[in-house]
Amino acid sequence: MKTFTLGLLGFGNVNRTLVELLQRKDAELRERHGIAWRITGVGSRRIGWRANAEGFDVDELLRSRSLDAFTGMRGQECPSYRAWLDAVQPEVVFEATALNVETGQPAIDHIRGALEHGAHAITANKGPVVHAYEELRDLAARRGKQFLFESTVMDGVPIFSLFRNTLPAIEVRGFKGILNSTTNVILSGMERGLTFDESLRQAQELGVAETDASHDIDGWDAAVKVAALVNVIMGVRLPPQKVEREGIRRLTAEAVRSARNAGAPYKLRCRAQRNESGVSASVCPEQIPLTDPMALVDGTSSIIQFETDIFPGLTITEENPGLYATAYGMLADFIRAALS
User: Which residue, among 169, 164, 206, 160, has the nearest Cα to 185 in the 3D structure?
Assistant: First the structure.
């Protein structure tokens, strides 16, 4: 049995749910994998850099919703990220801060610092994968650590590990899919008779869309996911700014309903394809005939189909995932890192 010290960067929905899942799976982790754990550090913009070398009380941690609650907990507040790493001594750092589409920062610096300090780095943040994948991959290899990110695309569905661990010596020639749940929910609402704004508000009330949902609506979230898949699985460096991008903002409710009634509903479809100059990639609304399984994907569901040199069409579908799905991807990466 080995006890791993864990540091959490960001303490919003994803890392809170991860802690709940760690609790729920604690007996299985111990009995099947020989893994025990304690959380020695939590850091976020709201609470600062908090450390407790003996380990925070997990129930107390999950109950803490305010700065005052964290201030009253045992431990210390550190003045900087580096000081936090020294105090926490994490063997695994879970990075779940907000996405910066343009630069990937500060998540890149968080992961770089964790690896340099001797910790495995696990993230649900797409920024480091699209802006610094090769650097962080190579740094992790030099340090004998893991840089893992299964939760960045389609929650915890094993896409990256599928190609890394299960399908060796295969060439991915291209892929297409529906990877943004917010636009899916908005389009579904418009098909039922809601206006764009009404459907967006419904998505926000469901917790699917952020207060500012422009990254989803304008296709940036989907473009970043495409870039992550191209960088890692296809082995071609592609920043999200190079993905041809059009969101759903121009679509009217009338056009969306007419397309559905004609048997070819609108979906925000992602594409990538190898060509002579590298890879071409796009995100844009398309009308998809109901004979195509992608036309049937709605709500928070996602789908992706890969074209490879061996399998002409390899399709993965995820139906209506919740926060536990994203947290599970990080838990699965933790197990991989712990057993590496």
Answer: 206
Decide if 314 contacts 305 (C-beta within 8 A). Answer: yes
Query: Average pLDDT for residues 62-88, to the nearest whole number?
Result: 86
How wide is the angle at C-alpha 100 spanned by C-alphas 97 and 104, nearest 5°?
90
Question: Which candidate, 22, 7, 14, places its Cα nearest to that of 331?
Answer: 22
CA angle 47, 53, 57 (to 5 degrees): 65
- Kindly provide the b/e burial profile for residues 241-253, where b requires at least 16 CB atoms within 10 angstroms of the residue's own CB: ebbebebbeebeb
Counting Cα atoms < 13 Å in the Cβ hemisphere of 253 gives: 13
Contact (Cβ atoms closer than 8 angstroms) between residue 180 and residue 268: yes
Q: Are strands 120-123 and 92-95 parallel, antiparallel or unpaired?
A: parallel
DSSP result, 146-183: -EE-GGGSSTT--SHHIIIIISTT--EEEEEEE--HHH
Tell me the Cα Rg of the chain. 21
Element spanning 203, H or E: helix 196-205
User: What secondary structure does DSSP assign to 277-309, as a single string?
Assistant: TEEEEEEEEEE--TTSGGGG--TT-EEEEEEES
What is the distance between the alpha carbons of residues 290 and 115, in angstroms, rounded to a whole number? 47
Task: Give kind and range of the element (H or E) at residue 78.
Answer: strand 76-78
The Cβ of residue 320 has, within 10 Å, a number of other Cβ atoms equal to 11
Nearest by Cα to 204 from 223, 185, 191:
185
Residue owning tokens 């754990």: 37
pLDDT tens, 252-307? 999 999 999 999 999 999 999 999 989 999 999 999 999 999 999 988 899 999 99
Q: Which residues contact 293 (CB under 8 A, 6 or more apart)?
A: 303, 315, 317
Alpha carbon distances (Å) from 166 to 155, 158, 161, 163: 19, 10, 7, 6
Is the peptide bond between 265 and the residue preceding it cis, with omega within 30 degrees of 0? no
- The pTM score is 0.94
